[in-house]
Amino acid sequence: MSVHSLSQKRAADPVKEAKIHLAAAHRLAVFHELEEGIDNHFTVTVPGRDDRYLILPFGLHWSEARASDMIVWDESGATLDGEGLFELSAQFIPAPIHRITGTRVVLHTHQPWALALNMLDNNRLLPANQTAAFFHGHIAYDDTYAGTADTLEEGERLAKLMGDKHVMFMKNHGVLVVGDTIAQAYKKLYFLERVCRTQVLAMGTGKPLNVLSDDVVAQVQSPPVDDRHSRSERQRLFFEAMMRVLDRENPGYAD
Known about the structure:
This protein is of the alpha+beta class and 255 residues long. The protein has helices at 3-12, 14-31, 88-92, 94-101, 112-118, 130-135, 152-162, 182-203, 214-221, 231-249, and strands at 41-45, 53-55, 71-73, 79-81, 105-109, 139-142, 167-170, 174-179. It is globular.
């Protein structure tokens, strides 16, 4: 499916578009080595609703995700549309985060470089390069991992800890990224892995990191006055470019 066709779907059927983008995000996570086969979970609020969510049924490998596979579910754990079930942590972690924070998209992974950083006693992401500076001040840290999530109360705790942040570092566990759109959230997830990788690699040299000053970080985070592209447009262009990669390397996600 071409980007032009996807643009037509955006105007004609927002639910179909959400399913296509969600399927693409799963396949891209495999392409970018952010996934664990059939585990972890990406969820999206159904357009036009605040209490129903889209998810890939548990048991499908992320590389084979299709728009038609996506099921609709609610916080009680009921499958309301489509076929299949989802793992319990997908109910107990994202549903309360959607409800409490109002975010439309929740991406949770155990991606390796971010997890490597979160295995350290001091797991803070430092603004030691330009891309990392964009994350500074927007990360919540959960330093109290006590086992797998098996109650809605755990998701509510995480939601309150998340607050208005875009990213959560879950020590000894993984990461959460939230956003208003799949394009926005996935771009954050992608670049988060890259900055975690560069920090771990730099730390591996044993040399001190040169952390940017608060003034420089503030300048990096401020959009240029004459920028040709808004941040939302950059996010859209990024995700559409990635979908074109999928069209070449792993087509079929829009089926």
